[in-house]
Amino acid sequence: MADRSSTHEITHYINVENAKIVAFLMVVGFVMYHSIIHLKYGNDSCKWLLSDGRFPGYNTWQPYGCMTHKYTKSDARMCMHYISYWGGRNHIVFLGDSRIRQLYFHFINLISNEEVKKFKAHRDVHFQDNKINARVDFLWHPMVNISMYNVYKNWLISEPSARPNLVITSSASWSIKLSNGSKEALNNFEVNLTYILPFVNKLKDSTKILWLLQDPVVEEKLNANRSAITNEQIDYYNKVSLDILENSAATLWSSSRLVAQGMRKESPDGLHISKSALELDIQLLVNMYCNNDMNHNDGTCCNTPEATTPLQIVTASVFLVCIVSAIALYIYKRRLRRNGLKNRTAAENGQRNGQATDLKENTTESATEVMSSLAKLGIIMFYFYLCDRTNFFMKENKYYTHVNFFLPFAYVMILGFFFTENTERTALLHRDQTDEWKGWMQLVILIYHLTGASKILPIYMHIRVLVSSYLFLTGFGHFTYFWNKGEYGLFRFCQVLFRLNLLVVLLCFVMNRPYQFYYFVPLVSYWFVIMYITMAIWPHLTKASAEVNSFHYLYMIIKFIILITCISLFYLSEVFFEKVFLTRPFKALFVTSDDSIHEWRFRWQLDRYSVVYGMLFAFGYQMLLKYKIVSDNLTTDLFSKPLSYIVTGTGLVGLLGYTIFACFCRNKPECNEFHSYLTFIPIVSYIFLRNVPGWLRTRYSSFFAWFGRISLELFITQYHIWLAADTHGVLVLIPSYPVLNVIITSFIFICISHEISRVTGVLVKYAVPSDWKSLLRNIILFTAVLLPVGIVNGMFY
Question: Given Cys at both, which of 147, 288, 369, 513 links 517, Cβ 3.0 to 4.6 Å?
Fold first, then answer.
């Protein structure tokens, strides 16, 4: 009994509210941890890029704490062109021995339209491309001696415009080889480098000098002439370089050494690194040089965070006022309770004053509830901003492998099946089942985004079906509600749109992103409006009206035909599509930050029929119920046994058929072209499999259903506090421990999503009241707040 009671006491404290407290304390702890890191080591992501990293997989390098962009030839040339266009210089010098020359030629081959191969050994090499205003030189100075000293001296006495703006240099192997690894040569290296140091420091205003620590060698591959070049000798020279240059104006590049060490077996001769390692090194170099000018979303290394906008400052001020007000109201409420104002006033002044006090306390309760909810949103929004608009927390690139995707997928599915239980609901697509469906779909989509699985075409196509399923359920659910309830009032319309858009509108203000950036909510909101207009426009059609007049079924079919025709016309005429959606003031809702409507058209046409499929399925199902072809009020199969077997088999064939199509489809554009016409097949097939057998229809996974109830918040919040860099990377709270980091960030992310869902539910009661006068007042207030924002951002001109 004692064990049972202690177990019950432990489980009593394991709940979502306590989990959110733990998550909050963890966030505070990580803020303190990263503050200490920044105070001790600084928050220069260039330093992270050039100093440390790891191999998450074969031939893939992940710098410590920041993300690298994969530069193609066109990207690199565009970078050079931009730097020149904005008044910068592209004069880069590689100074050193044959190891530095390796880097030089790989760099040239990245930025040049023609591959450069021919050169004379032990000679300088020069490259110039006037189209991108780039000059790149290799200067053969294999030892730190008087010749290298003179190079720096000549740069210093020359005009700043004649100096290179970037120098990549290093030396050691020749000194070791010629001196047979003598101590005297090491001392000479130290003395000569010390003589060069003043020039390095004086050139800092015009020239960035990058000293490359020597890569390890593969001793067993070295020939007899190079046998003196051992890793022990390399370490001696690197130690000297570190001691002299660590506190100088030069930047030490040590991550290249880690790259070479991880790929040392691929070295062709033991001294020079492999082509794969060279490519990784050049990517690090170009990211350092270009990221801040190119501003790629997936290139956070050496990239300055966005400047804060006036709207972000105003939003922060409003949230700060809400936080202060919430604290003040909380103190006021405690004082009221402590003084016992309510009971004392009622006893002394009679019932009328008591009623006035009740009204006062109710008003205080409402104000406290609203302000505390807004204060919580303000704190959460600050965390969003800290995660994805600053370099305070670290970020890493996504890395896809089949194991990375399918292993968490298997874990999630097993957990979901483990928490299966019975439900009293028996209707097709009942609430528990749709919550479950949304839940497991959302978890799979999260895994898909975390691992960067979009590059795998079959996975991409199946995820497209999951997104279409959300829209299908939107059509099914809202049509069923409108058909059965016949409620087309402004209250429900505003309530749905407020719940959908509150978080996204706040994020647009806080994160400085257009509404279309969070594409899913604009898509669902748009189709809800279209569906509402279709159903609400005269004649109003409901289940009750159709039972009185059978022609209403025909009217509903005509409405469907008109709706499908309008959608098809928009799809077939791109000019008409753009003319409608680029009309002000609605244009701001459909364009991205570069004023392009391409993203909206792509998303719209991809799922242009998904909501209609859901509405048609719901309408057909209502017809089957009316004529008693199906019966869903019992736990038995929907159809007779033979027909149930046929329908279930059809569902299996439909799912298998779509999977075969996704595996054999050749490319994304071709697959996307067929998607809108075929997506109903796997969706309806899944519904058949899940609902026709009575024993499946009356069971559901409470694990998946819990996530399904916060699926919208999970979909949106992942952008900034689970993923990073606007979904292009992964948020890192615990560097160098990727699995533990995903577990911790997932826990915090889920708790925040649940709290946002709860707060939205509280605010919707006050923002969208059932009284039409109060509702109209709030609409006017919202318009008055949003209108100036729209005017400032050019919404009307």
Answer: 513
